[in-house]
C-alpha cells in the first residue's frame, strides 16, 4: 500500500490531524523526604475494582493514573492534570509522587516491596507470579503509556483514497500494522529525545547484570522491564502476531498475553485474538519514560511530536521484510538506550534523515508543527538538551535523589496551592471544579460536555447523569427552580403553607412603587430587584426612611430588574441553609466585608492584608472575593466617620458593606453544628413545600440557640436554586462541608460514597 | 359597639379597603334566536359533581358561573370574564347566554322545563321538590350573588380598636350581623340603582298573581323567587337566626336551610349551625339583578359601590331594634322594587341621606370613591339613568326580547372574536391563556400566581401543580430543559445515542469562527447563535459561500449570543414535532412569510390582506404574526428581482423570508396525520434520550411519506423546551391540536380528561 499517495490527496488532508489520545502514567508514592511510603492506596479514592482513573500498578505504592480517551492534546493533558491533582490531594498530606521513572532507593529486603492489595484475587496471583519470574525490584519502574488512534474519518478517507484493499477492516489493520512495524524500527528516536532514566537508585539492581550508568534510558534498554529473550513475536500480519503470541503462552514462555512487554501493543478487544472481531482500535506506545520536568510526566510538545511521528510512520516506506525491519529496530533501540546521554548518538545521520522526511511530510501535507520538529531536530546535534542529559547534569550538581525530591516537592506544592481548583479545568466554576474533583476521586467517569456552560456528564456503569453548574440535576423538577427564581411566588407558596415570610409587594414601575412610600416609610424594609444575583440592587432601610432615600433605593433596584420587591425587613441574623435530599448539609453565616483593627494599620492596609489570602480572588475564581474599596465601600466608611486611611483601634471591627454576600467581599462562617436542630427542620420542610431537592434557603433567625417556637423566631427570606457550594466547602471560618460529595451521593446512592 | 369610632382610628385606616370577593352569576342558555335551548349542559365541560366554576342552577338550561375568592375587584372581574369566555365557548356554536335576569319566553308546558341532570340524586330530588312547591317557572330567573368578606387584617385592627367585646370570634360575628341587618334595611337602594328586571316575558307568570309591569325589579319583589310569608327569621343575634331557621325546617315550612331565600346569607360552614364553630366567614348578597349592559352581568363600578356600601353598613348606626329594623327594610325594599322605573322613588330623601353619609364616611376615612358615589347619587334625581329605566326605554323602542337578543349576540360575538384569547388574562402568553381556558373548562381550580411570569397554580382535590409558560411543569427534570437549551450538548447526546444530527462546531469568538471558513464554504451550512429565540441571528448558506457573506452571517449571529454554531445544512423540509409524555401530539410544517399572487394586487397589498386575518397579530398576542415589510423582507424580495409594489402573477408564491418561524410572519400548517409514523417514533425516541417529557423537536425530513430507513432520511436540528403551543392550536392551515389539554391530561391522569 502506498500510504503516501493516499495521504497527499485533497479529500484526506482536512482529516490528517484527527486522532484520539489516552495516557496512562505510573508514579511511585514517596514521603516528602523521598522515601517509598508504607501506606496503602489512599482510602478516599473509590474502589480499584472499578476505578477508571486511579489504579495501582504492580506494587501498593505505585499509582497508575489513566485518562479517558480524548480528541485533542489539550483535553488529554487537562484530564491528566486533573487526575494528577485528585490523586495528589487524595494522598496523605505527607506523601507525594516520585517524578522519575526509576524508583527511589528500594527496601533492602525484597519482601518489603508490597504487592498491590487488589480485590480481585487473580490480579494478586498474577503479580505474585511476576515477582517470582522477574523479581519485585524491576516492577518498580514507572513510565507513560501513550494510546493513539487515527481518527475514524481519517481512516475512512484514506480507505476511499485507495483501491488495493477492498475491506475497510483489513485496511485499518494494515494501517496499524505498518505503523507498529515502523514504530519498532524507529522508536530509538523517542528514546534518544525523551529517554529519562539514566541512573538507578540504591538496590534497583540486585545483581551484577546492570548497565554501565549513565545511559539514555535504563527502562527501555535490555536492563529494563523486558521479557526473556526467547519470547519473540512477528509483526508481519495480525494473524502471525496473534498466532505467535498464543504459541508463547501455550509453551509457557509467557503466563498470559499481557506479560508480553512489547514497546507497542495492538489494542481493540480484551485479548489479541479478539482483534479479528473488533479490528485494531488503537495502539499503545509503552516506551516513554516519565519526563521529570513536567508535573504530569509528559509535555504538550512531546504529545504533538508523538502525533506527527505516528503520521510519519504511516507516511514512510518500510525498507526490509517485516521481521528483519523490526529486528533491526530492536537492535538500534537497545544500543541507543544504552548510549551515554551527553554523547552524540551513533544514529545521528538516520536521525536527521527522519527529521528531514518528517519536515517534508509536514510541508507536503500542509500540517503545522515544522517549528516543533526543527527544535527537536536540533537536539540531535545537542545531546545535552535531551532529557537524560539534563537529568545527568543536575545529578552531577546535587545528586539524582535530591533533584527528584526538589521536583517532586515543587509539583506537590503546585497541587496544594489552590486546593479549591482542579488543574485542567480552572476556568470553570469552582463548584463544578469541586464536583469534578470528587467524581474523579470516587471513580465516577466524568466528561465535560460544555466548559463555558458548566455542563458535565457523569457515568458509573450504566447510570448516567447530567449536571450543570454543580447542582442542577435530574433530581429536581423543572418547575421547582422556576418557582424559587420567582421570589413573589415563592413567598405566596411558603406563606400559604404556614411559613413566616416577610410581607411585601411587587412593583412593575418606579412610579407605582413611589406611591407606596407611606406604607413602608415608618418601619424597617428592604428594596430589592425581583430577580437578583450576588445581592446587586438591594438596599435595606431600618426605619423612618426619607422619601429621597426611598426613591434612590428604587432607582438602584429598578436598574437591575423590571420588577422590584419592597418588603418587611426582619431583624435578626441571616443564615444560609443548604438543603439536599431532605437534609441540611451546611449552615452558613455570612458577614459583610470587614476588617479588624490592630491599632496600627489603616483600613486600606488591613484590607490589603485580608485580600492576600489565597482563599480570596476575583470574579468567583476563589471561594471568597477580595474586598473592594470602591464607591459603595467608601460611602459606608463615610457614614461611620471613617476613610480608607483611618486607623481602627485594636480589635475594632469595621464593616465596609451593608450586604453580607460573599461575592462583595463578605466572610463565610460555617455554623452547621451550632444551629439549633429545629431551624434545620424548618428549612427542610420549607424546601419540601417548594418541591425542591436542592436549595439554598435563607432564614433570618434572631437567636440560633433558642429552639423555634413561634413565627417571630424566624423568617424565610428566599430560596435559591443552584446555590453556591464553594463558600461552604471553603468557609472563611469553621468546618468545611463537602457539598459536592453530597450531590454525588444524591445522584449515585448505589455507590455508597 | 360604636363601629364608627373604631373605623376612624389611624391603625385601622390602612386596612379599610381590604376585602375578598366572589361572584356567582346565573344565565339561561338560549339559541341565537333567543329561544331557551333544548340541549344538555355542555359535554366539553368537566363534571358538575366537582366543577368549581361552571355549574347548573335549577334547570338544565341555567348556567351558574362561580368565581374563585379573590382579593381585588380587578381579579374577581377577570375571573368572571374568563369563566364567561370558557362557558360561552364550551357551548354549541349556536347557543348564547340570555343577558337578562328574567328568562326568555318559557315553554307552554311546565314539564318542558328540564330540571338539571345532576349526578347526585339528592340534588335532583331537591329540585323536584322546589318545582312542586314554587312551580318551575319561578326557578328560571337569574341573578348575581355577591360574596363579600371584610379583610382579616381589617377585622383584626377593628377588634384591637375597641374594648367592649373580648372575644375576636364574637366580635367578628357581631360585625357581620350588624352589616346584615343594615343591609336588609337599606338594600332597597341597590334595587333602585341596579334593579334590572322590569318586565317578564311570555309565560313567566302562570297565574293572575303578578305585578303591574314595568317595575324596578320583579326578581327582588314579592313576585320574585321568595319564600312563603310564614317563613320568618330574626337577625338579632346569630343564635336567634340559627335557632329560628332550624325551627322553620323542623316545622316543615322549609325543606332544608338552603331553601331560605333571604336577600343575604351568613356564610362560613356548610350549615348555619356550623357558624358557631367556624364563625361567619363572609356574607352573600343575593338581591342583585343581572346588569344586561355588561357581558358578565355586573360592572366594576357596581362592585366598587357595593364595597363602599358594605363599609357604610358597618359605619352607620341602626335606629330601631333588630327585628323592627329588618322588617322596615323589607317593606321599603318590596315597595321600591315595585315602583315604576322612570318614577322618582318614594324614598328619595332617605336615598340622598344615605349618599351624603357615605360621602362623609369616604371623606373621614380618606377613602377613594367619592366621584363614583356622586355619580350614583345623581341617579336618585334622574331615575331614567337606573338600569331598569334604561331597559324600559329600549323595550319601548323595540321590545325587551329584541333588546336581549341584540345584547346577547353582541356578547356572544365578543366571546368568539378572538377564541385564542381568554378574557381577563389577555396580557398573558397565549399558551397560558389556552391552558387556563382548558383548566377552567375541565374544572381544575386555577390561580395565576404571577401574571408577568406566566406562573399558574392548578389544583384538583389534593393534587396541586405549578405551571410556568404553559408547559414548564413538574413532569420534566431540571436538567432536561437545560440540556435542550444547549444546542451543542444536545447534539453530542443525540449523536452518541445514534441519531443523525448535523455536524458542526461551536465558536466562542468571531476571529476563531472566521478561520473556519474553508471548512464550510463548499457545502451548505447554517450559522446560528448557540441560544436563539424566534430564529433571530440565523443565516443559511446553500453552498459556495463567499467570505464576505460568511463574515456577515457571523456578525449577525454573534450579535445575539457569545457563542455561535456553524453546522451542516440538511436539505429537506423542517417539521416541528410536539412530544409530550412519550407521544407525538402534533406535527407542524412552518413556511416562511409569503403571499400568493392574484395577478392584480401588489405584494404590499397582498401582505396587507393576509395581515388582516384575526389570527395574525403582533408581539405574540395572536397565533400568527403579521408579515413585516422591513429591511430583511425587502432584501429578500430584491434577491428575487421584486419590490413591494411588484405585482406577482396569479398563484405565484412569493417568499418574504428565508426562515420559517411563525414569529417572523411564517405560516403554520398542521401535518400530524400526514407524517409517516416512523418519524414520529424517531422524535419520541430522541426526546426520551434527552430525558425530556415535553419537547418541540425539529426534524429535517426530505420525504415525510417515505418511511424512515437510514440516517439520510432525516436529521435532528434541535429540541426546544417550552415549545410554543398556540401555533399548533391555531394553525394557518390544517387541524387544530389542543396541546394545552394534553398538558392537563399529563398533569392530571386521574381526571381522565
TrEMBL record, chains A, B:
It is an enzyme of class 6 (ligase). Pfam families: ATP-grasp_3, ATP-grasp_6, Glu_cys_ligase. It catalyses: gamma-L-glutamyl-L-cysteine + glycine + ATP = glutathione + ADP + phosphate + H(+); L-cysteine + L-glutamate + ATP = gamma-L-glutamyl-L-cysteine + ADP + phosphate + H(+). Synthesizes glutathione from L-glutamate and L-cysteine via gamma-L-glutamyl-L-cysteine. GO terms for molecular function: glutamate-cysteine ligase activity; glutathione synthase activity. PROSITE patterns: ATP_GRASP. Monomer. It comes from Enterococcus xiangfangensis. Keywords: ATP-binding, Glutathione biosynthesis, Ligase, Magnesium, Manganese, Metal-binding, Multifunctional enzyme, Nucleotide-binding. The keyword Manganese applies. This is Glutathione biosynthesis bifunctional protein GshAB. In the N-terminal section; belongs to the glutamate--cysteine ligase type 1 family. Type 2 subfamily. Residues 491-748 form the ATP-grasp domain. SUPFAM superfamilies: Glutamine synthetase/guanido kinase, Glutathione synthetase ATP-binding domain-like. Its EC number is 6.3.2.2, 6.3.2.3. InterPro entries: ATP-grasp, ATP-grasp_PylC-type, ATP_grasp_subdomain_1, Gln_synth/guanido_kin_cat_dom, Glu_cys_ligase, Glut_biosynth, Glut_cys_ligase, GshAB_ATP-grasp. Its cofactor is Mg(2+); Mn(2+). Pathway: Sulfur metabolism; glutathione biosynthesis; glutathione from L-cysteine and L-glutamate: step 2/2; Sulfur metabolism; glutathione biosynthesis; glutathione from L-cysteine and L-glutamate: step 1/2. Residues 1-337 are annotated as: Glutamate--cysteine ligase. It comes from the Bacteria.
Amino acid at each position: 500500500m502506498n500510504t503516501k499517495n493516499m495521504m497527499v490527496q485533497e479529500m484526506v488532508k482536512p482529516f490528517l490531524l484527527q486522532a484520539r489520545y489516552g495516557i496512562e502514567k505510573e508514579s511511585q508514592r514517596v514521603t516528602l523526604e523521598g522515601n517509598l511510603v508504607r501506606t496503602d492506596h489512599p482510602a478516599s479514592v473509590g474502589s480499584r475494582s472499578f476505578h477508571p482513573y486511579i489504579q495501582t500498578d504492580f506494587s501498593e505504592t505505585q499509582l497508575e493514573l489513566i485518562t479517558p480517551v480524548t480528541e485533542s492534546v489539550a483535553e488529554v493533558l487537562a484530564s491528566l492534570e486533573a487526575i494528577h491533582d485528585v490523586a495528589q490531594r487524595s494522598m496523605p498530606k505527607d506523601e507525594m509522587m516520585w517524578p522519575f521513572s526509576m524508583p527511589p532507593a528500594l527496601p533492602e529486603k525484597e519482601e518489603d516491596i508490597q504487592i498491590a492489595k487488589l480485590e480481585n484475587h487473580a490480579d494478586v496471583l498474577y503479580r505474585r507470579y511476576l515477582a517470582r519470574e522477574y523479581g519485585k525490584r524491576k516492577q518498580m519502574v514507572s513510565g507513560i503509556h501513550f494510546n493513539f488512534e487515527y481518527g475514524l474519518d481519517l481512516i475512512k478517507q484514506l480507505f476511499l483514497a485507495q483501491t488495493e484493499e477492498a475491506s475497510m477492516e483489513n485496511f485499518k489493520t494494515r494501517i496499524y500494522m505498518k505503523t507498529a512495524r515502523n514504530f519498532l524500527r524507529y522508536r530509538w528516536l523517542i528514546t534518544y529525545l525523551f529517554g529519562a532514566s539514566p541512573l538507578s537508585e540504591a538496590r534497583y539492581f540486585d545483581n551484577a547484570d546492570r548497565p554501565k550508568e549513565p545511559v539514555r534510558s535504563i527502562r527501555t534498554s535490555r536492563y529494563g522491564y523486558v521479557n526473556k529473550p526467547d519470547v519473540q513475536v512477528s509483526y508481519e500480519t495480525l494473524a502471525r502476531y496473534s498466532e505467535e503470541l498464543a504459541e508463547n503462552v501455550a509453551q509457557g514462555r509467557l503466563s498470559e498475553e499481557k506479560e508480553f512487554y512489547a514497546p507497542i501493543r495492538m489494542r481493540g478487544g480484551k485479548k489479541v485474538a479478539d482483534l479479528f472481531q473488533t479490528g485494531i482500535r488503537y495502539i499503545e506506545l509503552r516506551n516513554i519514560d516519565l519526563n521529570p520536568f513536567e508535573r504530569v510526566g509528559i509535555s504538550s510538545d512531546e504529545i504533538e511530536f508523538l502525533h506527527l511521528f505516528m503520521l510519519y510512520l504511516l507516511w514512510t516506506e518500510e525498507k526490509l521484510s517485516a521481521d528483519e525491519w523490526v529486528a533491526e529496530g530492536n537492535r538500534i533501540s537497545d544500543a541507543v538506550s544504552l548510549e551515554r546521554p551527553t554523547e552524540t548518538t551513533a544514529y545521528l545521520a538516520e536521525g536527521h534523515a527522519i527529521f528531514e522526511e518528517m519536515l517534508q511530510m509536514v510541508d507536503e501535507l500542509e500540517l503545522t508543527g515544522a517549528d516543533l520538529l526543527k527544535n527537536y531536530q536540533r537536539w540531535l546535534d545537542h545531546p545535552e538538551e535531551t532529557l537524560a542529559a539534563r537529568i545527568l547534569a543536575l545529578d552531577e550538581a546535587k545528586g539524582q535523589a535530591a533533584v527528584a525530591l526538589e521536583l517532586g516537592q515543587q509539583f506537590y506544592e503546585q497541587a496544594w496551592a489552590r486546593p479549591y481548583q482542579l488543574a485542567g479545568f480552572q476556568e470553570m466554576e469552582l463548584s463544578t471544579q469541586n464536583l469534578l474533583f470528587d467524581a474523579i476521586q470516587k471513580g465516577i467517569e466524568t466528561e465535560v460536555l460544555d466548559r463555558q456552560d458548566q455542563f458535565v456528564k457523569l457515568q458509573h456503569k450504566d447510570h448516567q447523569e447530567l449536571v450543570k453548574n454543580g447542582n442542577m440535576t435530574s433530581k429536581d423538577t423543572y418547575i421547582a427552580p422556576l418557582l424559587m427564581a420567582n421570589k413573589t411566588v415563592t413567598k405566596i407558596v411558603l406563606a400559604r403553607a404556614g411559613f413566616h415570610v416577610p410581607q411585601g409587594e411587587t412593583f412593575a414601575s418606579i412610579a407605582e412603587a413611589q406611591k407606596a412610600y407611606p406604607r413602608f416609610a415608618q418601619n424597617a424594609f428592604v428594596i430589592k430587584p425581583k430577580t437578583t444575583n450576588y445581592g446587586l440592587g438591594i438596599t435595606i432601610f431600618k426605619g423612618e426612611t426619607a422619601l429621597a432615600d426611598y426613591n434612590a433605593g428604587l432607582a438602584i433596584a429598578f436598574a437591575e430588574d423590571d420588577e422590584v420587591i419592597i418588603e418587611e425587613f426582619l431583624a435578626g441574623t441571616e443564615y444560609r441553609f443548604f438543603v439536599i435530599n431532605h437534609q441540611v448539609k451546611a449552615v452558613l453565616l455570612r458577614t459583610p466585608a470587614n476588617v479588624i483593627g490592630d491599632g496600627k494599620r489603616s483600613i486600606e492596609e488591613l484590607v490589603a492584608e485580608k485580600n492576600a489570602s489565597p482563599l480570596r480572588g476575583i470574579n468567583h475564581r476563589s471561594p471568597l472575593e477580595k474586598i473592594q474599596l470602591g464607591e459603595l465601600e467608601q460611602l459606608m466608611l463615610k457614614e461611620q466617620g471613617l476613610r480608607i486611611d483611618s486607623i481602627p483601634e485594636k480589635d475594632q471591627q469595621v464593616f465596609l458593606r451593608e450586604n453580607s454576600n460573599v461575592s462583595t467581599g463578605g466572610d463565610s462562617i460555617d455554623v452547621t453544628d451550632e444551629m439549633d436542630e429545629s431551624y434545620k427542620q424548618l428549612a427542610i420542610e420549607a424546601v419540601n413545600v417548594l418541591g425542591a431537592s436542592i436549595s439554598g434557603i435563607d432564614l433570618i433567625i434572631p437567636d440560633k440557640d433558642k429552639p423555634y417556637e413561634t413565627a417571630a423566631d424566624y423568617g424565610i427570606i428566599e430560596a435559591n436554586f443552584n446555590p453556591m457550594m464553594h463558600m461552604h466547602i471553603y468557609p472563611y471560618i469553621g468546618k468545611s462541608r463537602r457539598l459536592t460529595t453530597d450531590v454525588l451521593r444524591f445522584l449515585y446512592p448505589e455507590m455508597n460514597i
